[in-house]
Amino acid sequence: MPRLYSDDRNIDLYYALKLVRGFEDKVSVLHRQNKILGGVYSGRGQEAIVVGTVYDLGPEDWVFPIHRDLGVWLVRHTDPNKLMAQLMARKGGLSKGKDNWTHAGDADRNVFGATSMLGGTQPVACGVAWRFKLRGEPHVTVSYFGEGASSRGDVHEAMNFAGVHNLACVFVCENNQYAYSTPVNMEIAGGSVSDRASGYGFPGVKCNGNDLHEMLEVTREAVERAKAGRGPTLIEAVTYRIKGHSEHDRADYRTKDEVALWESKDPVVTWELFLEKLGVDLPKLRADVESKVKEVCDKAAEFALASPYPEGPEAMEDLYASPIGARG
Ligand SMILES: Cc1ncc(C[n+]2csc(CCOP(=O)(O)OP(=O)(O)O)c2C)c(N)n1
């Protein structure tokens, strides 16, 4: 995929992290102003996972983000204006303002829209990988789910199917310690999602989801393995959901110490330290990147606010594909 900001890979990765954070922060503010329709589920603290798993994918690969993965769309180069218009249910949005932003998808960028049923996209990711296999195409699917959703039947079924058929699937579990207010020790017997992979006959890798280097590396290995026809990988990226489940959740069920501990492991700050050690003039770079991110986010909000809501009868448009043979 083309670079987002700079030809220097490390700096471009920094921009990607900051873009994801900046866009999500903008969405939080707009939500408080009542301008966003539908739920907002901040991925603050999880940026290294979305950047690390998407950044090096090829244009033919498919990604299957879920509610906390707005960043997947941005790193996949979905137009921020259209994405923001989608969040505001405007005509200029990806599905012309007809549904929740998570459901839209972006067919031009191979981003598959999710349904509200957690775990619902893992079988679909298998279906797409099955198509790759039938056609002998060297592409991969990357699908996301939380550790809460990891116990859904469809997630187990999908991983078993992918294991049986040796499909080019990378399953990414974002283990952010909570499913709504339920802590991880009340969610998963045995304490580990990645350990389950052995039951499906493929590797499970537990890694530091706050470390961009590590996320890039485990993804590279998983994607290479899948594209070489050696089958799926389950990545359990251990991280923390810095904000509440959604904007209305103050998450008072967590201790201040716990939140502070994880804030001290901020993936964006960690990457800044790395750049500084490389000799980058960080204050200057940070100022440049923040000003570019602000420009992108402000423009996206302006575009979205200027876009009208769809008219009632438009709800009936675009519901069915044209019959095969009738397409232009
Ligand atoms: C099958 C299903 N059950 C319950 C819900 C309601 N729900 C939406 S998000 C959520 C929490 C999910 O937690 P997790 O999978 O760990 O992801 P996280 O929100 O922590 O990123 C729940 C219970 C749903 N959408 N689908």
Structural account:
By secondary structure, the protein is of the alpha/beta class. It is built from 12 helices and 7 strands. The strands form 2 sheets. Strands 1-2-3-7-6 form a 5-stranded parallel β-sheet, with helices on both faces. Helix 6 packs parallel to helix 7 (153-164). 44% of the residues are buried.
Structural category is: alpha/beta
Number of helices: 12
- Rounded average pLDDT: 96
Number of domains: 1
CATH level-4 homologous superfamily: Thiamin diphosphate (ThDP)-binding fold, Pyr/PP domains
User: Tell me, what is the CATH class?
Assistant: Alpha Beta
Note the beta-strand portion: 5-15%
Helicity level? 40-55%
Strands, count:
7
Please trace the helix and strand order, writing H or E for each element. Answer: HHEHHHHEHEEEHEHEHHH
Q: Which parts are unreliable, with pLDDT below 50 for 5 consecutive residues or more?
A: none
What fold name stands as the CATH topology? Answer: Rossmann fold
Key words describing this protein structure:
single chain, 328 residues, alpha/beta, Rossmann fold, five-stranded parallel sheet, two-stranded antiparallel ribbon, 43% helix, 9% strand, binds thiamine diphosphate
Quick structural summary:
The protein has 328 residues and is α/β, with parallel strands linked by helices.
